[in-house]
């Protein structure tokens, strides 16, 4: 009971701090594109503007459904993705604190260790990236601990824990699916040798069966609703190409000139410098294989998943996997006795890992570096303009806009209700008959990055520049213009 009461301030501190961080990120346009799509999609679904087929067949399933539920229950203008991400980090913080106390850490040391893990730069990046990355982190923690338990006991409960963790990963993030696929050849090493000797194949099948069954069921649902399968994330090929271009701008051709190999090496280095505690503790217990194998296998799967995502192009860029560093460090502190026997060394290595986490982000997240460089050069960006245009449209109903192409517009407005997006009948009729009849219409500059793929700009090439008959400009910035239909008296 005392541990639970002590845990509450830690969880509340993490929750409030992350909400404040998210507010700063939104204000400066630092929310990831995937998080913006999730925010807009969840708000649209919560307002009843998304067909049931798209909701049921949405992927990644867990973050979308959770965020949609929060957006439906919460008041208007509530940042649902930020609430979900902050809640998940608070849960991870509370779990780590209780686990550290359970293995014998003093309260103060447990609190310090929890802060160093929960506010590790890689986990902070995951929070800003949105619920999908945080669900990935939560299930990675579950899997890391389950692998240690599986190696120690290999009972039914341990097998089920690993299977559920893999299934959760597959439906939390595309890279979680890559992790689940990449884990198959490594799982046999995490089972006790006696069990592997008698039925290695059967054990692996038991571990991966829940994941493959769930994937098959999801595929069937997507087939029932043909064409309605929907992902709020950028297409894997698009996100991977953007990441590869950013890698080339920052690092040139890399060490080998082979992107898959270089990205795997970078992820391995990011794990080492982001979680030096894992390296040191594994070295200290090198002769005790049950304590060594799970951590090594976990790191190997992360590197293999990185290679798989880059080589196949099916899972997007591998940046999100960097969150495995603080997760691995937390798992080793909880499961390896030497870590809690040498508290001074453990805390020092966690501090070093926090500092190394900053360097690890430089290695594996060049997109963010490029984004900050762009902000420094231009002083603004199209995302901030979209947020501002959405804010200008707040309180106005019947705004015709291609919000699938510009989800930041929904974020700036606060809610999807009142927006006539691509799913609405007025939007479809406007494109079909080349005639606008909505009370308001918002379009970006056709020459901007977001305007190139805007469907209204394509259907009405001169709309941004010349407006439409019977409409006047009521708001504009560097990228967006908001038009209002003239009233009968010409105002």
Characterization of this structure:
- This protein has 491 residues and is mainly alpha-helical.
- The chain has 2 domains: 2-374, no CATH class; 382-485, no CATH class.
- The protein has helices spanning 2-27, 33-46, 52-56, 61-73, 80-102, 107-118, 121-129, 131-152, 156-170, 174-183, 193-224, 236-251, 259-274, 276-284, 289-312, 324-335, 337-341, 343-364, 366-378, 382-392, 407-413, 425-433, 449-452, 455-459, 463-466; strands at residues 58-59, 230-231, 399-400, 419-420, 440-444, 471-476, 480-485.
- Strands 4-3-5-7-6 form a 5-stranded mixed sheet. It has a two-stranded parallel sheet with strand order 1-2.
- α4 (61-73) packs across α5 (80-102), α7 packs across α8 and α13 runs antiparallel to α18.
- The longest helix is centred in the middle third of the chain and has 32 residues, at 193-224.
- The radius of gyration is 24 Å and the shape is elongated.
- The N and C termini lie far apart (66 Å).
- The model has no long low-confidence stretch (mean pLDDT 84).
Task: Describe the secondary-structure layout.
Layout: H1 2-27, H2 33-46, H3 52-56, E1 58-59, H4 61-73, H5 80-102, H6 107-118, H7 121-129, H8 131-152, H9 156-170, H10 174-183, H11 193-224, E2 230-231, H12 236-251, H13 259-274, H14 276-284, H15 289-312, H16 324-335, H17 337-341, H18 343-364, H19 366-378, H20 382-392, E3 399-400, H21 407-413, E4 419-420, H22 425-433, E5 440-444, H23 449-452, H24 455-459, H25 463-466, E6 471-476, E7 480-485
Parallel strand pairs: 1-2, 3-4, 3-5
Antiparallel strand pairs: 5-7, 6-7
């Amino acid at each position: 009971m005392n541990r639970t009461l002590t845990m509450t301030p830690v969880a509340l501190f993490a929750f409030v701090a992350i909400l404040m961080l998210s507010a700063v990120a939104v204000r400066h346009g630092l929310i990831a594109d995937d998080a913006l799509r999730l925010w807009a999609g969840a708000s649209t679904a919560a307002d009843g503007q998304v067909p049931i087929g798209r909701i049921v067949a949405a992927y990644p399933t867990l973050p979308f459904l959770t965020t949609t539920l929060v957006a439906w229950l919460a008041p208007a203008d509530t940042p649902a993705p930020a609430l979900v991400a902050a809640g998940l980090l608070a849960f991870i913080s509370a779990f780590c604190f209780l686990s550290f106390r359970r293995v014998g850490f003093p309260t103060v040391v447990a609190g310090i260790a929890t802060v160093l893990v929960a506010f590790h730069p890689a986990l902070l990046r995951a929070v800003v990236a949105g619920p999908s990355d945080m669900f990935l982190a939560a299930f990675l923690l579950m899997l890391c601990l389950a692998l240690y338990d599986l190696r120690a006991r290999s009972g039914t409960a341990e097998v089920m824990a690993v299977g559920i963790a893999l299934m959760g990963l597959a439906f939390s993030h595309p890279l979680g699916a890559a992790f689940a696929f990449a884990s198959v050849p490594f799982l046999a090493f995490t089972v006790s040798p006696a069990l592997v000797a008698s039925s290695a194949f059967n054990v692996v099948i038991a571990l991966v069966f829940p994941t493959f069954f769930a994937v098959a069921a999801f595929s069937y649902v997507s087939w029932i609703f043909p064409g309605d399968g929907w992902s709020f994330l950028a297409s894997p090929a698009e996100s991977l190409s953007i990441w590869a271009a950013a890698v080339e701008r920052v690092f040139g051709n890399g060490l080998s000139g082979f992107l898959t190999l270089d990205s795997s090496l970078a992820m391995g280095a990011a794990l080492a410098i982001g979680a030096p505690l894992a390296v040191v503790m594994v070295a200290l217990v090198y002769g005790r294989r049950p304590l060594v194998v799970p951590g090594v296998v976990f790191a190997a799967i992360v590197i293999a998943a990185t290679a798989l995502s880059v080589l196949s192009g099916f899972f997007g860029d591998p940046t999100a996997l960097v969150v495995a560093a603080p997760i691995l460090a937390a798992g080793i502190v909880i499961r390896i006795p030497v870590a809690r026997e040498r508290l001074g060394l453990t805390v020092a290595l966690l501090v070093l890992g926090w500092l190394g986490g900053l360097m690890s982000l430089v290695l594996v997240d060049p997109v963010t570096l490029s984004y900050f460089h762009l902000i420094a050069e231009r002083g603004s960006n199209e995302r901030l303009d979209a947020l501002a245009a959405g804010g200008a449209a707040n309180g106005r109903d019947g705004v015709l806009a291609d919000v699938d192409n510009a989800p930041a517009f929904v974020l700036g407005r606060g809610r999807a209700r009142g927006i006539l997006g691509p799913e609405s009948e007025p939007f479809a009729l406007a494109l079909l008959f080349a005639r606008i009849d909505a009370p308001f219409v918002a379009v970006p500059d056709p020459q901007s990055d977001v305007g190139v793929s805007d469907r209204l700009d394509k259907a009405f090439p001169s709309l941004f520049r010349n407006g439409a008959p019977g409409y006047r400009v009521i708001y504009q910035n560097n990228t967006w213009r908001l038009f209002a239909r003239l009233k009968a008296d010409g105002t």
